[in-house]
Amino acid sequence: MRIVLVGPPGAGKGTQAVRLAEKLSVPHISTGDLFRANISQQTELGKLAKSYMDAGNLVPDEVTIAMAKDRMEQPDAVGGFLLDGFPRNVSQAEALDQLLQTEGITLDAVLDLEVPEAEVVKRIAGRRICRNDSSHVFHVTYSPPKQEGVCDVCGGELYQRDDDSEETVRKRLEVYHTQTEPIIDYYKSQGLVRTISALGPVDEVTERALDALKREKAENK
């Protein structure tokens, strides 16, 4: 299957993308991973992207699209893929359609992970990270440490990252509503969107997504 995963920050896209890609036996193509891979391998696209990033500028759509095209043409993506973080706006969605059209293939579904804005703020603003090891992550509500402000694993100090502050989260949501959310309407016009609730345990959200994809497959047989 060829799937695009969308949803606001804090919806759990990264977690669900990895789980769904594994269940569906397709590669998980994340724009973040694409940028890191191209930059670390010093590809021409990576060097180009880095030049924009080093100057403090946004990487142009055409560079992002070229990276995604290159990745989707790899042998493991021939039978399908799950796109996470791309397309990020309508112009990228249109470019993706054109790209797929030239290959004679189409998207099967766009999974929209829905979560109330108040929950997004609660999820992200409640995160606390260990200063000694950033892989030690806690949450003031959902997975609090035994002792407030202290990492259960190593005893390090827990802190809130600047980009996890409520003010920053709300700004990120504004960007999502302005730039990315319009692609949902774009894909709805093509009958591709399957909206699922991203609330509840991770396993339940995964099952909802898989059920939505099964229904999509059955309806289009």
Q: What coarse outline follows from CA principal-axis ratios?
A: globular
Instruction: Name the helix and strand elements from N-terminus to C-terminus, one letter apiece.
Output: EHEHHHEHEHEEEHHEH
Helix content: 40-55%
Number of strands: 8
Judged by helices, strands and strand pairing, the structural class is alpha/beta
Strand adjacency order, main sheet? 2-3-1-4-8
Write down the CATH topology. Rossmann fold
How many helical stretches?
9
Characterize the largest beta sheet: strand count, sense, and whether it forms a barrel.
5 strands, parallel
Taking Cα atoms only, what radius of gyration do you get, to the nearest Å?
19 Å
Oligomer classification: single chain
Strand portion, in percent? 5-15%
Distance N to C terminus: 13 Å
Mean pLDDT: 92
CATH architecture call: 3-Layer(aba) Sandwich
CATH class (first level) name: Alpha Beta
Q: How many domains, as an integer?
A: 1
CATH superfamily membership, which one?
A: P-loop containing nucleotide triphosphate hydrolases
Low-confidence stretches: none
